[in-house]
Design goal:
single chain, 5 helices, 4 strands
Length: about 190
């Protein structure tokens, strides 16, 4: 395959020499007419004149009809349409609430903690799959453990995180794992 000279192709090509005049051949074109600036000036003058006439026409139009001012007769006093302002306030709750005491029942019994909690992110039949899930969780920045469980339906390898003191902590970690595309984690009460 021949090598290509990239330097030569990047150089600008020399301009072509002008050919002989077409006038000698008989194919002469008439020179193009110069642009018509007077046409543009005429259109601009017409538009400005039309706009000026429109403003003059609007100025001649009568203003919106207004109602004639009402003649105030000296025999009739001006009557407000507002209702009479009450002298005494009809509501008494403001005065009643100033001296009112509210009794609040305080629950002195402490709530028993519901924890500890654990989070299970997978349950697999093969230990290699559980270790792969554990590695994914480790890359997300969390420590997990693989627990072997024997049940009536065989041996399972569970990937668990925890224990957590509160469900809120476990939920926060589950949300961070979901941001790392590790879904399906469930929170269980460990007791």
């Amino acid at each position: 395959m021949p090598q290509k000279d990239y330097v030569k192709t990047a150089r600008p090509k020399p301009k072509a020499k002008p050919k002989a005049s077409n006038a000698r051949r008989g194919n002469a074109r008439p020179p193009q007419r110069a642009s018509r600036p007077w046409l543009l000036i005429m259109i601009t003058v017409l538009l400005l004149g039309g706009f000026g006439w429109f403003l003059w026409y609007l100025n001649l139009q009568p203003a919106t009809p207004q109602q004639p001012p009402a003649e105030v007769s000296k025999s009739k006093p001006v009557v407000d349409d507002f209702p009479v302002k009450p002298i005494a306030e009809p509501y008494q709750y403001i005065k009643e609430l100033e001296n009112k005491e509210v009794q609040v029942e305080v629950d002195t019994t402490e709530r028993e903690p519901q924890g500890p909690f654990q989070m299970q992110c997978g349950s697999f039949r093969q230990a290699e799959q559980a270790e792969a899930m554990r590695a994914q969780i480790a890359f997300a920045g969390f420590a997990s453990a693989v627990r072997r469980t024997e049940g009536t339906n065989g041996i399972w390898y569970r990937v668990v995180l925890g224990p957590y003191d509160s469900k809120r902590q476990a939920t926060a970690d589950r949300n961070r794992l979901q941001q790392q595309n590790i879904n399906g984690c469930q929170i269980w009460n460990w007791t």
